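Q&A FORM
Asked by: J.P.
Topic: structure of AraC family transcriptional regulator

PROVIDED:
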Amino acid sequence: MKPRYERPGVPSGTTFTCFTRRERCFDFAWHFHREYELTLISAGSGTRYVGTTVERYLPGDLVLLGPDLPHTYASEPSDQPSEAAVTQFRHDFLGAGFFELPQFGAVRDLLGGAARGLYFSDVAPELQADIAGLPHLTPAVQTTRLLDVLHRLAADTTATPVTGAGYAAAPSTAVRDRIDVVVRYLQKAHTEPVLLDEVAALVHMSPTSFSRFFRRAIGCTLTDYVNQLRVETACRLLTTTSLPVTEVAARSGYRNLANFNRRFRELKAMRPTHYRAALTR
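REPLIED BY: S.T.
REPLY: Here is the structure written out as tokens.
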């Protein structure tokens, strides 16, 4: 299956859409669209997949994604529903050339940075409330509020790119199709041994050709991507269970504890035990 191309509907009386997404859980649904997307998680936790990057999300998670950037959110099992405030808009939703006006230079730069996705790590409660409230406003107020939100986000110095420097949106449907087959497979299989030959065979390529293809299309090696998946699985287990670290490592796909500790420190800059202590105290 390929990442689903979405064409979000736009309600009458406006030029963009925003809504509250409330579901029992967010299922893995790899997709992309031509719109920018601003997503604020208001309830639930799970894993956020954007391009080459795999990260855990919690309530308060705020991300701005650029057009054609494949992504999805997958919830962790919970008795509580998952909820997010989502706003989707095209670059010209306020008219062609609007963001070329000199007074909107900072917003123009913000939207340019969204090509790799932008994560905002320290969002003021007032701004979170304004974003969460967007779906409940009339179209005119909604529009001015969104412009204000973008202006405030443009001044946020905590914004960091979500995807790696080597990542760019897949240039063709054929590339997207192949990458999607692999990403969906790894999302389910990463806790088991992942063999290059088997993954390459999924998209009918030789292992050598596939390695070059994956790195060129995604911006990291297959091993690096699998380690991201495994470490994020470990993060979830460390914060939601009391399993010993050795068991967390095994359930995350690591058969060697020393390798698990090394990979975890590379990606999280701390030991698994320190991560658990910091996130559960």
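FOLLOW-UP: Residues 4-161 form a domain with the Jelly Rolls fold (CATH 2.60.120.280).
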